[in-house]
Amino acid sequence: MLYMIQGEDAPDSLDARLAARPEHVTRLQALRDDGRLVLAGPFPAIDSDEPGPAGFTGSLIVAEFPSLEAAREWADADPYVAAGVYTVVDVRPFKKVF
After folding, report:
1. What are phi and psi of 8, to 5 degrees?
2. Cα 18 from Cα 15, distance rounded (Å)
3. CA–CA separation, 95 vs 82, rounded Å?
């Protein structure tokens, strides 16, 4: 089943986000390589693909996991969580219609 993982960034966490990004991306690439990743990306803090120092307000990941518990465990192990980038992580089942 598909699950939505939405992380909300802490204020002024851009430096921590950039430092943890390589490990974060490696995990996403593993999901992609397994054919389980539907989409992933950040929410720019301003209306721009490259927000510069304005940074990001969070991220969205939609991927396949065997259960809600597995999706939560994967999300809890994200390097952005360990680095304090995400203050809140929401994990929910997701039904792709289109």
Report:
1. -105, 125
2. 5
3. 28
Question: How far apart are the two ends of the chain, measured CA to CA in Å?
Answer: 15
Q: Return all residues near 40 (Cβ < 8 A) that are at least 6 apart.
A: 28, 31, 59, 60, 61, 62, 63
Is 21:85 a contact under the CB 8 Å cutoff?
no
- The contacts of residue 91 (CB under 8 Å, 6+ apart) are 3, 4, 5, 6, 68, 71, 72, 75
The string of pLDDT tens digits covering residues 24-74 is 999 999 999 999 999 999 999 999 999 999 999 999 999 999 999 999 999
